[in-house]
Write a structure and sequence with these properties.
Helix content is 33%, strand content 10%. With 315 residues, the chain is of the alpha/beta class. The strands form three sheets. Strands 1, 2, 5, 6 and 7 form a five-stranded mixed sheet that branches. The chain has a two-stranded parallel sheet with strand order 3-4. Helix 3 runs antiparallel to helix 4, helix 4 runs parallel beside helix 6 and helix 7 crosses helix 8. The radius of gyration is 18 Å and the shape is globular. It starts with a strand and ends with a helix. Keywords: Hydrolase, Lipid degradation, Lipid metabolism, Signal.
Length: 315
C-alpha cells in the first residue's frame, strides 16, 4: 500500500497567490504513479470522484484538491496537455516515495526537486518562481518502512533527525531557486491511521510520540530558516492538530461530519487478493478510506479546520 511523503509544486490562480508548486506523495499524488499500479488505479479507488480510478489514493478528492486552486498538471502528463495548463503548476508527487529512498521505484524528494529544476528556463521563468508558493510535505513513508521491522528507540529517533535535517536541506534548495513562499505541513498523528490504530494501544501512543518529536524538530527548522531569511518565507500547515480536531469531534464543530468510528477504514484491503477486499456502504461515513489515507469527506473535514491556516500560508 502506498503512503506519501514528497514535494508538490503547483502554480496557483493568477492574481490570488500566483504560482503554487507542490512536492509530496500519495496524499497529493493525483495521477503520477503508473496505471498498472494496484490501488490508486484500481476500483473502487475514485468511486466518489471522478467515478472511476484516477490515480488518487482515496475514494475521491485528496488533500491538494481542497486548496481551492486550479489543479496543477502531474509531471508524468506534462507532455500530453495543452501548454497553457502548465501555468497552473505541476505536481511531482509520487505515491509511496519518501524523503529518502523507500520501496517505491519513483524519485524521492531530492529527485523530485531535480525534475523541477530541469524545467526551469524553458517551461518556468524566474518571474514564475518569484510569485510562487511551494507546498513541501512529508507524511510518513520513511517512518512507515522503518517501523515495519524492529528497531531500538535510539535508531528511530536518529532516523527522525536525519529525515528532518534532509527536509531542511531541501527547503533551502527550493528557496534558493527563487520561490519566495514555502508551506510545510506538519506530520499527522500516524498512530491513529488504521494501519497502527488497530494494534495494541501502546503502539498508537508510541507512534504518536515519535510524530510529536518530528513536528518539534520541524518547527525548529522553520523558525531557524525564517530567522535567516528575515521574513516569513516558510510556514507550517498544522495537519497534526487538524486531524486530531476531526478525529476527536463529538459534534460540536460546525460544518464537520461526526465520524462515529474514525479508526475503521471504509475499504478493507485483502493483502492476498485485492478483488476480495471489502467496501463499506457509504464512504462519506468514514474518515479513513483505507489503512493509510483519508476519504474525500475526511480530507474535506481536515481542510475545513485548516481554512484560516491555509489562507495565511498561501497569501
Amino acid at each position: 500500500m502506498n503512503f506519501f511523503a514528497s514535494l508538490l509544486l503547483a502554480l496557483t490562480v493568477r492574481f490570488l497567490f500566483s504560482p503554487f508548486w507542490r512536492y509530496r506523495y500519495s496524499y497529493a499524488d493525483t495521477g503520477n504513479t503508473k496505471t498498472t499500479d494496484k490501488g490508486a488505479w484500481a476500483f473502487p479507488y475514485g468511486i466518489t470522484y471522478p467515478g472511476k480510478p484516477s490515480g488518487r489514493f482515496s475514494d475521491g478528492h485528496i488533500s491538494t484538491d481542497f486548496f481551492r486552486i486550479k489543479l496543477p498538471v502531474t509531471h508524468s502528463k506534462k507532455d500530453d496537455v495543452d501548454k497553457t495548463r502548465l501555468q497552473y503548476g505541476m505536481s511531482f508527487a509520487y505515491g509511496g516515495t519518501g524523503v529518502f529512498d523507500t520501496k517505491a521505484t519513483y524519485p524521492n524528494m531530492t529527485g523530485q526537486i531535480t525534475l523541477f529544476e530541469q524545467l526551469l528556463g524553458n517551461v518556468y521563468s524566474p518571474s514564475d518562481l518569484s510569485s510562487s508558493v511551494a507546498l513541501v510535505s512529508v507524511a510518513g513513508n520513511d517512518y512507515l518502512n522503518f517501523l515495519s521491522t524492529r528497531h531500538s528507540l535510539d535508531a528511530i529517533l536518529s532516523l527522525i533527525t536525519q529525515v528532518v535535517n534532509q527536509i531542511e536541506v531541501n527547503l533551502r534548495r527550493i528557496h534558493s531557486l527563487g520561490i519566495k513562499k514555502i508551506a510545510v505541513p506538519s506530520l499527522q498523528p500516524l498512530g491513529y491511521i488504521p494501519y497502527f490504530a488497530k494494534g495494541f494501544p501502546f503502539i498508537k501512543d508510541a507512534v504518536n510520540f515519535l510524530v510529536g518529536h518530528h513536528n518539534d524538530l520541524l518547527h525548529e527548522v522553520v523558525a531557524k530558516l525564517n530567522n535567516e531569511t528575515n521574513h516569513s518565507a516558510f510556514t507550517i500547515i498544522d495537519y497534526n492538530n487538524a486531524f486530531l480536531t476531526v478525529i476527536n469531534n463529538k459534534g460540536e464543530i460546525p460544518d464537520i461530519l461526526l465520524f462515529e468510528t474514525p479508526f475503521i477504514e471504509c475499504f478493507q484491503i485483502d493483502v492476498n487478493e485485492f478483488k476480495n477486499s471489502t467496501l463499506c456502504d457509504d464512504p462519506r461515513s468514514a474518515f479513513f478510506w483505507d489503512g493509510l489515507h483519508p476519504t474525500q469527506e475526511g480530507w474535506k473535514s481536515v481542510y475545513t479546520v485548516l481554512r484560516k491556516n491555509i489562507t495565511a500560508a498561501l497569501t
